[in-house]
Every structure is written in structure tokens, then in C-alpha cells.
Amino acid sequence: MSVDVQVKSFPLFVNGKWVDSVGGETFDVFHPATGERVARVAKGTKQDIELAVEAASEAFESPAWREMSPKERSQIMVTISLKIAEHAEELAYLELISSGATIRRLKNFDILMLADLFQTLGRFILDYPYSEALPVPPFPGPAHNFVWREPVGVCAAITPWNMPLMLAGFKIAPALAMGNTIVVKPASHTPLSTLKLAEIISEVVPPGVINVVPGPGREVGETLAQHPKVSKITFTGSTEVGRRIMQLSAETIKNTTLELGGKSPNILLEDADLNIALPGSLLGVFFHSGQLCESGTRLFVPDRIYDEVIEGLVKWASKLNIGHPLDESTDVGPVISKQQKETILSYIEAGLAEGATLVCGGKEVTVPGCENGHFIEPTIFSNVTNDMKIAQEEIFGPVLCVIRYSDMDEAIRMANDTIYGLAAGVWTKDVNKAYHVARKLRAGTVWINDWHILRNDAPFGGYKQSGLGRELGRHCLDAYTEVKHVHTSLVTELEKKTVYRLLFPNLH
Ligand code: NAD
Predict the structure, then answer these.
(1) Which of 128, 222, 474, 476 has the most other CB atoms within 10 Å of its CB?
(2) Residue 97 — very low, low, confident or very high, per pLDDT cuts 50/70/90?
(3) pLDDT tens digits, residue range 387-417?
(4) pLDDT (tens digit, 9 = 90+) per residue, 300-353?
(5) Cα torsion 456, 296, 349, 311: sign
(6) What pTM did the predictor assign?
(7) Which residues of 162-188 are buried (b: 16+ CB within 10 A; e: fewer)?
(8) Which CATH architecture group holds 48-260+462-484?
(9) Whose CA is nearest to atom 42 of ligand 1?
(10) Domain residue spans in the chain?
(11) In the CATH scheme, what is the code of domain 265-448?
């Protein structure tokens, strides 16, 4: 695979068709490794959102989609999965040229996990409890009671640039599995793979079931978050924008799922196997150049082995290859943009100003052949204290803060001393200690002797200001349903209607 320098044009995808935006404007997408323009994309507007929501609304009401059996829907999910596999190379290419993800990651994880997600949810819906019967009550008389699960309606998904395809899939797959329709607004750096995914999916679902409208968050995103015909909003992105989405969606009381930022603590216990824990911790923070919400950015290390650990981390980090994402030997690729690179460098300066010790990295890098790309060295700070800016704020770049602790309780206390609660980790040979620490950590995912392991059948999401609700696993299906209680009285004679007698005696 090579990067095709020909600039491709991408319209919006609405109501089963490629369409130009109402305003006729476009914006450019650039390759983070080279700075080259790789695509021109139609810029959605409020009016485009109106059209997309209308199409999604009509599709939701259409019998072709609404009355489909779980078995048929499950088959559609499986077909989508197979189509994703068929288009794996094109999807990976579009993801790589816009997000800068390495080809190794895309080939080995993202596309496989995305295809598997549609399979997994397709399987889950076959035995999903769409209707549960409650026990027949003695009072107020014989009755059949059911709890039904029904689709929510039109869903809106707003996604970030760091793992655009997979994170769009985390929303599209459960929405469709439960019979909803969806309008997706991808991040402006990375709309390409989501647009392609919509085209693939639209081959097997009625028009309007999936729509993708790229455009500015302030206009397109905010219109979606407030739209009265949108019943659910599902957002992945920064905590700051998540708060705004919550405020906007409060006006129409939308069902809301938020996947937000993180500053995940990684606790090394004294007995940890450093041969696994050190490379594992570096993978935990430097994978995708630190641009993952659940990266292990704060490493807590016991006093007694602190110096040995720092030395080991620097040694292991020196083995990481920084390079073009298409190069199979690249471990660490570019960061998304010049602006993001500058933000990361300013955090590195803040760390130095606060008195942390830079033990490796800290600078931008020029990769031969990628002179206009945005690369930063994997960076490690020692002597960080948990109250420093670099230990409290999400940097979203390849920066590890190593923090010293004297006993396990202190490590747990500092680990939880953050507004975030997305992921956490602990490294030890003692499983009892591991579970003790895991119980105390306030995070939606805890890895023991590992990092970055997400499963399509396990819930993922945040405690505290890292989010609301969960994606993946069976839990995510519930989040795309409304719950309805249906009561059927079996009492057919007026005299035996106990409640009438008790409340309105004069009606007897
Ligand atoms: P961002 O919050 O800036 O943008 C996310 C999306 O929201 C984009 O599509 C953007 O256009 C849109 N947006 C921006 N302002 C908006 C507004 N006012 N109204 C509506 N939509 C608006 O985030 P980003 O920079 O694209 O991504 C990085 C962030 O995402 C990090 O904070 C990271 O932790 C978070 N993230 C979280 C998870 C998770 O699962 N918890 C996963 C990936 C990324």
C-alpha cells in the first residue's frame, strides 16, 4: 500500500446517496505524516443536518426497517461485517492517510475488531430480551405484565479524530443492531473512513438508516445535539466538549452516552515482572503516539525500585522506531496536526517549568521523507508529582509522567486523585494484591499485567468526568433502547376491579 497523492473528493452521505452540501463549501484533509492534502470533503451545514435527520426519521418509521425481525437484523449485521472485511484495505488506507495510525495497528486490530463488533452484536441480538414477562401478581388482580425494549429513534453520533473508524463503529453497530437510525458527524481531520463505512453499510440497509455529515463541531455538531427529532446523542471526544453536548442535549432531554477524556493511572507494585511491566507500560502510553483516551499516562513506581525503573524505561523507549505509518517497522507514528504537536510541546515545557526531570524525548522529530509531518519523540518525565499540570491534564501525546510512591495506599490515593476515571492498570505477580488494587481504583476498565485490551463483549467507558454510560458488550445494546412496561388486565368483571373499588368507590 502506498499513499496516493491524488486528492479525492468526498461529498456528504445522506439518505443512501452521495450529495453535495447545501452551502457548496468544502474543506481539506491532510496526511499527518507528510502534511500533504489527501482529500477535499463537502462541508456540512445546519441545512444538511436538517436533511439528514429528516431522512433518518423517515427511515426509522418505515416498515422495512422498523418491522424487521431480530433474525433478519442479525443477518444484516453479519453481512456488514463481511463487507468490512472485503473493504479492509480501502478502509485502512483512508484511516491511515487521515489519522496517521500505523499500518500495523490497522491491519492487526482496528479493521478486525470493527468487523467482529458487527458479528458480535449480531449474535447478541438473537437472544436479546426484547420482551420479558413479569410474574402474575395477586394484587390488584390477575394480569400479564411485560417489559419491552424498543429502539430509541434517530441517534446522533459525534466522533473524534484519534480512532475515527472504530469509534464510529462503537456507535453505528449498536444503533443499527437495535433498529435505530443514525446521523454521524465525524471529526474534520478524519471523516474519510466513516464516509466509506456508511457507503458500505448502505448497500444492505434502507436509505436514511445511516447518514454521515462532516462539518464544524460548532455548527453541525451543535445542531445535532439540540435537534428535537434526535432522541439519542452519543459522543466521543474531550470532556470539555462533552459538557457542552450535555448542556445542549438537556434542552430536549436526550438519551446521552459520553466517552470522554482520561489521565489513566498505571501502578507498578514492587514484585512486578519488569521485563513485562516496562515494555507494557510504554505500549500503554506511546501506542498511537499517546493519542488514545485510555493511555496509561501516569506511572506510579515504588521508592525502592524507582531508579531501576527509570533506567529500564529509558532503555526500552530507545528501541521504539518513530516513522511513517506505512512503514511496517514503525512503532510510533505522527500526531494528528501541527496544532496538536504544539500543544504537546507546550505541555513538555510546562513539565520542565514545574520541576519535573526530562529523562528522554521531549522534542519534535524530523522523519526523512516526512519533513512536513508532525512527529514527537516518546517523552518520559521522572520526579513528577501528582499535582503537577502534566499529571492532571490530558496531554493527548507521547508523554509519560513517572510518579514516586512509598506505600500501596498512597499509590491508590494518588491514582484516584484526578477528575478522570476511564482506565487504570496494575502490574504484580500477586493476584490477591492485583484484585485489591483493582477494587479500589475508580475506573471503567482495569488491566492487570496488560494494557489497551478492549473486547467487543466487554463494556468500555468512564467513571467520573471520563463519561456517562458504556460502549461495547451487551450493555451497549440497552443504551440504544427505550424501556416500555405493558400491563394487560385479565379481570373482566367490574366488581372484581379492586383498584377501581378502592380509589373510585362511586363507580361501582
Ligand atoms: P473534541 O472534543 O475536540 O472533538 C470531538 C468531536 O466533537 C469532533 O467531531 C468535533 O468536531 C466535535 N465538536 C467540537 N466542538 C463541538 C461542539 N461545540 N458541539 C458539538 N460537537 C463539537 O475531541 P478530539 O480532539 O477530536 O479528540 C480527542 C479527545 O477525545 C480526547 O479528549 C480523548 O480523550 C477523547 N476520546 C475519548 C475516548 C473514549 O472512549 N473515552 C476515545 C477517544 C477519544
Answers:
(1) 476
(2) very high
(3) 999 999 999 999 999 999 999 999 999 999 9
(4) 999 999 999 999 999 999 999 999 999 999 999 999 999 999 999 999 999 999
(5) negative
(6) 0.96
(7) bbbbbbbbbbbbbbbbbbbbbbbbbbb
(8) 3-Layer(aba) Sandwich (3.40)
(9) 293
(10) 48-260+462-484, 265-448
(11) 3.40.309.10
